[in-house]
Amino acid sequence: MAHATFDTLQFTETLKAAGIPEHQARAEVQAISLAFSQVIEKQVATKTDISAVKEELKEDISAVREELYTVKEELKEDISAVKEELKEDVHAVKEDIHRLDGKIDSLDTELIGKIDANDAKVSGKINLLSWMVGISLIISLAMLPMVVNILLRLPG
Fold it and tell me: Do 40 and 2 touch, CB atoms closer than 8 A?
């Protein structure tokens, strides 16, 4: 408990010198002294009060540090779990890409085979057409003298 110290005798003498009767001066000093002590008890912190607050603050700070450490550790675990999930996801994506690459290579090979087969068919048909045109031309040329001869013999 805090105490206000002031010289009550000197205060009483000051009041008496101002013309206040002694019994009134003593009553005023007691009233003021009581008022000061009540104010000090309720509003002024003592060293004990300050020490208690310091201890509470130390405990609160310690508790907050522990909570922060716990949260930090939980975050580390969460981050580690997320990293593992991402690694797995990336690995799965890489496998999917590898499979797609294989499918693309297979489709490329299949398309090249079909194109080559179509080229062979077209080449065969062009060769056949060339032979047919060639034979038709030879036949036409072979028949040309006959046709000319027939045309020349026609009356007219």
Answer: yes
Q: Please write down the HEC assignment for all residues of the chain.
A: CCCCCCCHHHHHHHHHHCCCCHHHHHHHHHHHHHHHHHHHHHHCCCHHHHHHHHHHHHHHHHHHHHHHHHHHHHHHHHHHHHHHHHHHHHHHHHHHHHHHHHHHHHHHHHHHHHHHHHHHHHHHHHHHHHHHHHHHHHHHHHHHHHHHHHHHHCCC
pLDDT tens-digit series, residues 60-83: 999 999 999 999 999 999 999 999
Scored b (16 or more CB within 10 A) or e, 120-145 reads eeeeeeeeeeeeeeeeeeeeeeeeee
The contacts of residue 1 (CB under 8 Å, 6+ apart) are: 41, 46
pTM higher than 0.90, yes or no? Answer: no
Contacts of 127 (CB under 8 A, 6+ apart): none
